[in-house]
Amino acid sequence: MSLLGSIVSKILHPFGTSEAQAAPSDKPASTEAQPTSGGSAPASTATSGGTSGGPVDVEAVLNDMAAKNGQKLNWRTSIVDLMKLLDLDSSLHARQQLADELHYSGDKNDSASMNVWLHKQVIKKLEENGGKVPADLKD
């Protein structure tokens, strides 16, 4: 499984899923509720478990993981900390591999710029794959 697939799987499908289901989509997923015939939108039950069929609350899942983790990790701004929180390899080589998967066109030796870009792209991919992402993390 790709690194991006692992990230998406661990956040959006925390209770396990097949590799085919965990593969990130190239198409944006609609996360907006459609109005019912009564004119009001149905209540959304976005949970960290993802069992409701609605969008998975990315912030709730990651905050829950962070609360159970012994390290103080800033997943909101750091791709390294996000990968550590997910128990994934966060080495420069792994991040360069993720950059390749996401078609990064910048200098992969400029890790600071690459890391900022990677974090934004991962958050974007989580949203595209059905995650409910906090507004302050969107571009």
UniProtKB/TrEMBL annotation:
<dbReference type="Pfam" id="PF12200">
    <property type="entry name" value="DUF3597"/>
</dbReference>
<feature type="domain" description="DUF3597">
    <location>
        <begin position="3"/>
        <end position="134"/>
    </location>
</feature>
<feature type="region of interest" description="Disordered">
    <location>
        <begin position="15"/>
        <end position="57"/>
    </location>
</feature>
<protein>
    <recommendedName>
        <fullName>DUF3597 domain-containing protein</fullName>
    </recommendedName>
</protein>
<dbReference type="InterPro" id="IPR022016">
    <property type="entry name" value="DUF3597"/>
</dbReference>
<feature type="compositionally biased region" description="Low complexity">
    <location>
        <begin position="35"/>
        <end position="49"/>
    </location>
</feature>
